[in-house]
Amino acid sequence: MKKILVTGGAGFIGSNFVNYILTNRDDLFLVNLDKLTYAGNLENLKEVENHKNYSFIKGDITNNELVDYLFKKYSFNYVINFAAESHVDRSILGSEVFFRSNVVGTNVLLEASRRYGIEKFVQISTDEVYGSLGPTGLFTETTPVSPNSPYSSSKAASDLMALSFFHTFGLPVVITRCSNNYGPFQFPEKLIPLMIINSLNGKKLPVYGDGLNVRDWVYVIDHNRAVEIVLEQGKAGEVYNIGASREMKNINIVKLILSKLTKPEGLIEYVKDRPGHDRRYAIDSSKIQNELGWKPEFDFENAINETIEWYLKNKNWWQGIITGEYQKYYKTLYGDR
Ligand SMILES: NC(=O)c1ccc[n+]([C@@H]2O[C@H](COP(=O)([O-])OP(=O)(O)OC[C@H]3O[C@@H](n4cnc5c(N)ncnc54)[C@H](O)[C@@H]3O)[C@@H](O)[C@H]2O)c1
Which CATH number fits domain 2-181+219-242: 3.40.630.30, 3.40.50.970, 3.40.50.720, 2.40.340.10? Predict the structure, then answer.
């Protein structure tokens, strides 16, 4: 049985990955190393917590001794590094933890992978490393990296570091750069859950700037299917873009959510734009489609409906989150609205 170190497996995408793999495969053993920051939540993993092919370790990827101990104990075949501070707005409020977790943490994992030897290291990255597009064009894997936020610059740094471990030491590293994800278990600070939850609570829906920033949306399971394929077939030293060609203006996503929930558009409130806000992301995923045979399976209209349904059915999940620290963060960002 192949053993995988999955980091950040209690967050949004990582927990969906763990649930997806343990439901669909019986030939992989997953060790989930997660620090359980504000974004990590073991509730996401209730269905699999006692699975025979699964073990959870609470810990920090920057902790050299712990990471070394886990590599020694488990002799991992693969590493998939989902762990990261992931929210652009938080990186603007304070960047240090982004560089510690995303850069230093990735370095610790790469060094251990080099020391012990592994078959594949998958670095989960983002299209945000490419910077911002004008009204036309798409990011390809050869688009120069040009990040604009502390978050995206920390991700770009870890990508380049990972690639350097391939070139210098021959470590079999593969990078995936995915567009914006949506689906169950996404932390309420991100656009889609934020708008669903505020609508349900009758609160204002804060929309940055003119609301015309464009993001390219992919369902989280499609992303994770791509990660699974890259893990097994991705060529070492390569970058693969992942996206579903579903560009949407932020304001249109917000209006769509309001209409599905039959709430008034009067709840929308335009707020001061995010500093350095990237205007448009759009991804060309033809490389992974042509070379590895992946393609998105989830249709946006159905998957967004299912996502909204999930938040309606799982109020306990998000009601437990939007208290305490979250309220403080929300107030810092959006004031009393
Ligand atoms: N959400 C998106 O739309 C998106 C798109 C493309 C790429 N990504 C990338 O995918 C990965 C996962 O994103 P997400 O949205 O699930 O993030 P998330 O914030 O929901 O989850 C991150 C997880 O990492 C854990 N973590 C953070 N720092 C850690 C550390 N030092 N040690 C161990 N665990 C730590 C957290 O506890 C949490 O469980 C990130 O690398 C992100 O950059 C996200």
Answer: 3.40.50.720
